[in-house]
Amino acid sequence: MADFLLDDLNPQQRLAVTAADGQVLVLAGPGSGKTRVLTRRLAYLIDRKNVPAYDIIAVTFTNKAAREMENRVSNLVRANIDGIWLGTFHAMCARLLRRESASLPFTSNFVIFDSDDQETLVKRAMRELKIDEKMHRPASVHAAISAAKNDLLGPTEVQTRNYREEVVARVYALYESMLRTNNAVDFDDLLLWGAKLLRENPAIREKYASKFHHVLVDEFQDTNLAQYELLQHLSSLHQNIFVVGDEDQSIYRWRGADYRNVLRFEKDFPKCEKILLEQNYRSTQVILDAARGVIDQNHNRTPKHLFSERGAGNKIIKYDGVDDHAEAGFVVDTIAGYLGGKKSKASDFAVMYRTNAQSRLIEEAFMHAGIPYHLVGAQRFYGRREVKDIICFLRLVENPADEVSLQRVVGVPPRGIGEKTIQNLQAAANQAGISSGEALLDLGRSNEKSVFWPLIGRSAGLLADFGAQLAEWCTLKEKLSLVNLFERILLDVGYENYINDQTDEGIDRWENVEELKRLALDFQERGLTEFLQNLALVSDQDTIEDQEEQPQAEDTSSVTLLTLHAAKWLEYRQVFIVGMDEGILPHSRSRDDPEEMAEERRLFYVGITRAKDQLYLVRAERRSTFGDYDYGDPRAFCRISTTGSSSTRANAAPPAEPARKRI
DNA sequence: TCGCCAAGACTTTTT
DNA sequence: GTCTTGGCGA
Which nucleotides of B are covered by protein (CB under 7 A)? Predict the structure, then answer.
């Protein structure tokens, strides 16, 4: 009898999908049908094992992956799957924290600070502590705090072996208390508090551990320590945990991801069933062999023998341009050649690079040649100034205690309120033991009669005006629909005039505001709170790639330009990896650290395995960096077999020539 | 307080 | 090369 759930799976995939209860570790090479296995497993549990959907939690790393999985599973099973907990780690944790806020130091309507907000708050903490921002850059202090949180370390638990670490600890402590007064959590907190909550409250832990009979995890190699602990707690009772990942594709170490969680899993669950998915449905054997030549140099992993039934395929083509212009020229000329032949369309091609800065020259070359192209993930919609402005206005209306938003929008557009006035407001509010937002609202209500009036100085009137404005919005929040509130705020502050100066840039910015308004329209029924939460947790990559899913007319097809990191989910017939120079790929900052070099190899590996038919490795003899020219050195990563005849050839390459001098 | 100019920085960016 | 930041004058 035909079985649509299992028939089209290969033996390894079927083994994984139908595995017995317990712990299952699926190591899935690139293009081996990882998503398919995960969705079929979910469908199998629900449809064949009669597991109710609400007994299952399945976590992914992107909203897009979660949405896709939900759609596919609901198409595969007869049962209704509404009760399933399916989403990103962060969204699942946000839900958990809102439900259990009684046991937490914030209320259930907490706001979520994104990385920009985090950095703003770090800066404020540093100023308050009078720490020199030249010596300790806020970005790096922020990174240190974030890393500590990913390792589940609180402000009193971080190491203070030297002055720098001590500075970080002090900033961390103040930063943390500032989050509390803002009733806010940051991205990292969602995971940290989630793990802490379950660790320290046995009753709550048991509640969820008994609820979730099955725990499923996607992209397991990119979990951090907090996520790992979370998974342990959630599966602590029923012990049914099914994880899918590939340690060779772990490329987010700098954000706390630790591929060694795969090893940890094997150690913590010695009885786990380990299944390797090695049949690749994407690439030719030549490409897979090249990829293997790169990745086999890494340690602490399970070796995999990726194979393809697609045959050897074309040789990998290497190209050394004289400079970066020649590099871009080669890419564009090659693609132009194919497009002239009519057999290929622009969307068959992708150009991948290590750093975003490399895209500029390539873009110019495409523009010059008149070939349509688009960038993936370069300009983050939610990171745009105008988008962030509006979000902060809305956040302030939702939660006037949000000091980060207040500070941002109090002078947008400029209304005569500057640094000094804000400082006075903060000091006055501090003294009264309330937030600046509350003090501002009081000023708006009582004007000169407010106790804060004399403490502000010259601009008290301006501040009171803004406070009254904010108070009005807060009242309107209850009466108007989300979109009407949105429009009202824009109108009240004259935002369109401010942002749209009729230049191309101004028009573009205003269009972004309108795009945000369209998004708000989808949340008319759910309201402001949910809209804001969604904005915090649904970001960037999700929205951009959605357009890819619905390719429009043929003539809009274009070449894709993207960083190697952004390439992870994608595949193309022909892939160009450019900038194959020591210092760029592998990146110079990785040179001295073997773990970092291993990550560069994984990044390269991810890039190689995106190619279905044809791979090009391109480099330049010299390239301009920040104005003047540098000579590159084609070391480690250019030693790669182009014919696939021997995957060990990459290791046996002659030693690299010494780096050439710079002119 | 705001807007302009010069100086300095500059890997990657699932949430 | 280009974006952000900080200092200074109007």
Answer: 1-3, 9-15
Question: Torsions phi, psi of A139, nearest 5?
Answer: -60, -40
Among A349, A364, A361, A357, which residue's Cα sits nearest to residue A378? A357
Q: What percent of chain A has pLDDT over 90?
A: 47
pLDDT at A639: 62
Those residues whose C-beta lies under 8 Å from the C-beta of residue A80, and which sit 6 or more positions away, are A53
Which residue(s) pair with A308 in the sheet? Answer: A280
- Looking at residue A582, the DSSP 8-state letter turns out to be B
User: What span, in angstroms and rounded, lies between the C-alpha atoms of A353 and A373?
Assistant: 15
Read off the tokens for A8.
Answer: 């089209």
A610 is catalytic: yes
Q: Is A161 exposed, middle or buried (0-12, 13-18, 19+ CB in 10 A)?
A: exposed
CB A213 within 8 A of CB A83: no
Contact A15, A222 (CB under 8 A): no
Is A35 catalytic? The answer is yes
Residues having Cβ less than 7 A from any atom in strand C: A 133, 357, 360, 626-627
A88: left (phi over 0), alpha (psi -120 to 50) or beta: beta
Strands A611-625, A628-631: pairing kind: antiparallel
Residues A590, A588: Cα–Cα separation, whole Å: 5
Q: Which bases of chain C are under 7 A from a protein CB atom?
A: 1-2, 6
Whether pLDDT at A657 is above 80: no
pLDDT tens track for A261-310: 999 999 999 999 999 999 999 999 999 999 999 999 898 899 999 999 99
Distance A356 CA to C2 C1' (A): 12
Q: Cα angle at A70 between A64 and A76, to 5 degrees?
A: 135
